[in-house]
Amino acid sequence: MIKTLWMFGLLAGLLVQPTFADERADAQDRQDRFIDELLEKMTVDEKISQLRLVSVGPEHPKETLIADIRQGKVGGIFNTVTRPDIRLLQDQVKESRLKIPLFFAYDVTHGHRTAFPISLGLASSWDLEAIGRSGRISALEASADGLDMTFSPMIDVTREPRWGRASEGFGEDPYLTARIAEVLVKAYQGDSLRDPHSIMAVFKHFALYGATEGGRDYNTVDMSAQRMFQDYMPPYKAAVDAGAGAVMTSLSALNGMPGTANSWLLRDVLRQQWGFDGLVVSDHGAVLELMRHGVAADPAAATQMSINAGTDMNMNDDAYLHELKALFDSGKVPMAVLDAACRNVLVTKYRLGLFDDPYLRAGVVADDPADRNAESRLHRADARDIARRSMVLLKNADSVLPLKKSGTLAVIGPLADSQNDIIGSWSAASLPNQAVTVLRGVTEAMGDRGRVLHAKGSNLSNDPLIQQFINAYEVVSPLDPRSPEQMIDEAVAIARQADVVVAVVGEARGMADESGSRASLQIPDAQQALIAALEATGKPLVLVLLNGRPLALGKEHEQADAMLEAWFPGTEGGHAIADVLFGDYNPSGKLPMTFPRTVGQVPLYYNHLNSGRPFRPENRGKYTSNYFDVEHGPMYPFGYGLSYTDFEVSPIRLSSKTLSSGGRIEAQVTVRNMGSRAGETVVQLYLQDKVASISRSVQELKGFRKIALQPGESRDVTFDVGIDALKFFNAALDFQAEPGVFKIMVGLDSVDVRSDEFTLE
Ligand code: BGC
């Protein structure tokens, strides 16, 4: 009987499977037929128009764009963020000959109406569920505003804290960034892109923008293919594998060829090697910038290079609109290339469900929110929960934290009450006036149990260069007209009345943004003076850091009793920080980027090669790879972060000392919470290929697990190690594993590890 049922099940399975595959093939056929028929009907001008991606603004006033849309001269729009505005533009399509719907895109990078922590903060959580949740909520909020697409995630691996856009990425590690890329692409896109609550992910910036030389934005990248594929490409590949619908090119040049004209990147790697079948958009103005790069003499050459290289859509500079027709007529851009680019735009719209319903996300007037900024549209509870998971406790001498909710607390610093700064950069749709500052968060948490005093203490900086930069476009950080001495005197007087001083210091949000490159990694001068004056009061000093990059904190580490890296934590930042300061949440974040001691050590990253003369602590003399004028190594290593409890990791238990090429081994540790508070930590797995055909990194992250433990509780954590984790790109760029001895390390940061060895046979 059982056998008969089993046979029946098998048969049913066989019958069902082909049906499902057939359905998918049918859907693909329908899509192909639809696009083929549409392409047939299109004139060359109409095809060219589909490649135009523009933003309403001074260069493209609304009235001009409306006229253009009626003539079918626009493919997609970005930076229009409300349902009425989106509907108004989409309505104009009805006047055009073929009525091809527009899509609407925006930079939804760490939240939309609700700001979550900046990406570097999200990465610090090492919490894929929380990061995915932030992405899903972003998609819900953005699609509710009529948006179809986000220019996110930015998954440029970077080892450059000087680079302002380090804040927008997920740090220095390819494995961690790749896992986050997968999670965010799936969170944005949901189960189906045709769902009104899904938005398409445009991952960026392809490729290697984060390797920009010297951390100077838009600068050159020159790199070996091995390093590129091993350390920088995995997140982009992961985004493709996760089904991302689109990609944005990089403004920077790679080995002399800018991303937007780089056919090796866009055709050979992205489409041929990785099988990407979505849309490629240029970055803002990137086509015409090919002239400044010095690879194109004029707009026509820039256009020819970009489209022939595989950049389908042209963002905002209208080079394609003006140049493509003549290039096509003269045969410099073949019909096949134009058709392929246009097809990619049409497929994108098809996948987004816009041909069936151009108003799928913009909806109807009757469903519009009465107030698009209404409180009820925010996701405050999730924002608070995710923000507190993203904070990293850097120091906590004598358990000065958590604080008591009684007595007198002085909350001081230019960032203590700044709603503009706490939400972070690229958060245009989130309103600063809905953000909770640290002062407010702490005051609410204390209630009437204690007293909170406040002084600004200093401006963000006394340096006119910095002051000018952060207020260049709009006054985001108004200058206090008082003298630095007056401000410090006031702060010190207030600090003297307090039991504990909490100083909220760091960077203005605009300092860690596009083009926000810094030559210094220090907290700006004015705030350094403030910290020194606060330290001199002798009161316990807690620094809460708001910033968008690793800073050089050697001096502050000496001055402060405790330091909490809170990044730019978003709309609910102040509540989340208060939760951590008072112990309502036990901090669990870990650094996704190395913190150097001084800017002179940069680039400083954990997964470096060994060199022939590595530093040896027992011999600080000559002839090792080291700076003689600074203590060796980072201030805080990759993966580092403290808790209010202590965790202990057992030695590694390996299921076998040998691994065959088809097999797997298990590496297990027991993690115990040794303290008296519940807490979470991140158990990290690293590998090193000890001897290979080319030099390999001293350690590479290959797995991690975030676990929660009650006081005294212990848990076994098991990592499965198979051959894929041992593979690397050899000199011939084959991705393969070589037999030999591997070191395996498991611990709570990249330095504090247990280790063992096994052999790949
Ligand atoms: C940035 C992109 C962004 C685009 C559109 C550019 O300046 O480099 O990351 O998506 O603007 O806002």
TrEMBL record:
One function term, GO molecular function aspect: beta-glucosidase activity
Database matches in SUPFAM superfamilies: (Trans)glycosidases, Beta-D-glucan exohydrolase, C-terminal domain
Occurrences of domain Fibronectin type III-like (ranges): 681-750
Keyword annotations: Glycosidase, Hydrolase, Periplasm, Signal
Broad class of where this protein is predominantly found: periplasm
SMART domains: Fn3_like
Signal peptide: 1-21
An individual GO BP term: glucan catabolic process
An annotated GO cellular component: periplasmic space
Organism domain of life: Bacteria
Name by which UniProt lists this protein: Periplasmic beta-glucosidase
Lineage: Bacteria, Pseudomonadati, Pseudomonadota, Gammaproteobacteria, Pseudomonadales
